[in-house]
Each structure stands twice: as structure tokens, then as C-alpha cells.
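Reading group handout, session on sequence-to-structure problems. Before we discuss, look at one worked example. The prompt was deliberately terse, the way you'd type it at a terminal:

> structure MerR family transcriptional regulator

The input record follows.
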Amino acid sequence: MKTYTISQLARSFGLSRSTLLYYDRIGLLCAPERTAADYRCYTQVEYDRLERICMFRSAGLPLADVKTLLSGDAAPSVSILEKRLQDLESQILELRTQQHTTIAMLKEMSRGSYAPVVDKQMWVGMLEAAGMDESAMAVWHAEFENRAPEAHHEFLLSLGISEGEARQIQGWSQEMIEASRQEKSNQGT
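And the output record:
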């Protein structure tokens, strides 16, 4: 069976030796064996575990959450990842708001022309220019909501729409979907 020294393992993942020593100290990645000279000796099992640790860390998860995820219990694992996703969505919305604010300040200060970020006003303007009226836009939202509700939500947030307004749009989109289904059901009877 192939074994790895701490330096080999660190090099394989682009980590420092001290990072692996820290992981050992907190019980995240422990060497199962020691050589006669008392050097840590890692196996393929630890290599695979470190690969997963690095994957979770690249998703921005703190070490405490990584440790929980590696414990193997599926229930907390899902909730940890769902919380991370919510945190990321919140950060993206916050960054999008900062981006809009910065662009507005740049436009004001330089009186120059910066490529516009697609926001709610621009999007509605494009749909209107394409010949869509309010009812056609409502159908468009309902269809988007029906096919991909999470993507619809993310799209709305990307336009700089608040979480509350995005939820309202999704709510009436869902009502339209349900009304359409009810109408089709009534026609079938």
C-alpha cells in the first residue's frame, strides 16, 4: 500500500506542512501510523480525506463545518451546505448592490459612459422594446418560475431586486401557474 510523508501529502495539495500539522492537532486529519523515526505516515485513506477537506475549503466552509461534514452524518451535512449556499447568495446580492452603487458613483464623478449593468429598469425596458406588455411579462415570469424556480429567484436578485420583491414576483408567478393548471383541469372535465 502506498504511503505518504507529511511533505509529500502537503505538496500534492499545495498546502504547507504546518497546515497539515494543524489539521492533525485539531483532529481533522491524523496520521494513522508513525515510522521508526517517529515521522507521520499517511495512507490513501488520508489522501482521499484531504482531497475532500480541500474541496470543502474551496467552497469556503470553515474547518468546524468541514469536520462535521466528514463525520458522515447526512442530516447536518445537508443543512451545513444549504446554509453555506444561503450565505453565498446573500454575499452575491450584497456585492451586486455594491457594484450598482460603484457604477453609479463612477458615472456621476466622471460623467463618462460605463457599460451598464443589467438592472430591473434596463431589463423591463428591453422587454418593452421587444413588444412585451405587462401581461406578457407576467407570463414570462410564470414560465420561468414553473421551469426553474431557483434560477428565477437568482435572476431576479441579479437585477438588483430586493429579496422581498423577488419573493413577491415569485408568489404571483406561482399563482398564475396554479390558475393556469386549474383552468386546464376545468376544461378537461
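Points for discussion. First: The chain has a mean pLDDT of 88. Second: The CA atoms of residues 126 and 141 lie 15 Å apart.
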